[in-house]
Design brief:
Layout lengths: L2 E4 L2 E4 L4 E7 L7 E8 L6 E6 L7 E2 L7 E6 L4 E6 L8 E9 L7 E2 L3 E6 L1
Parallel strand pairs: 2-11
Antiparallel strand pairs: 1-3, 3-8, 4-5, 4-9, 5-6, 7-8, 9-10, 9-11
């Protein structure tokens, strides 16, 4: 699976952005899709993930209630809708994929930069 993230940019605090991650390959629906982020000087952290069916999305506590992960298997695309953005959300955002049941994300996109100004 090859992943291509897009949709990052500069936004003011309180604003919104929607990230997209397009996947190649015919077995997109077999993968759990996740979003991670890495802020300058910090380790990469989990943001959100969604199962192959689109059910059971789960989130990091820091984004719960503000971010929504979704997927469209017909388009081989996963989305991250980010609302009420805060300066601390500034980071490079990565999408990733893992086989259902696996614990490790084996496939990673190149990342897209989100900058939230105060």
């Amino acid at each position: 699976v090859q992943l291509q993230a897009s949709g990052g940019g500069l936004v003011q605090a309180g604003g919104s952005l929607r990230l997209s991650c397009a996947a190649s390959g015919r077995t997109f629906r077999n993968y759990v899709m996740g979003w991670f982020r890495q802020a300058p000087g910090k380790e990469r952290e989990f943001v959100a993930a969604i199962s192959w069916s689109g059910g059971n999305p789960y989130y990091a506590d820091s984004v719960k209630g503000r971010f929504t992960v979704s997927r469209d298997n017909a388009k081989n695309t996963v989305y991250l809708q980010m609302n009420s953005l805060k300066p601390e959300d500034t980071a490079v955002y990565y999408c990733a994929a893992r086989v259902a049941g696996a614990t490790v994300y084996s496939y990673w996109g190149q990342g897209t930069l989100v900058t939230v100004s105060s």
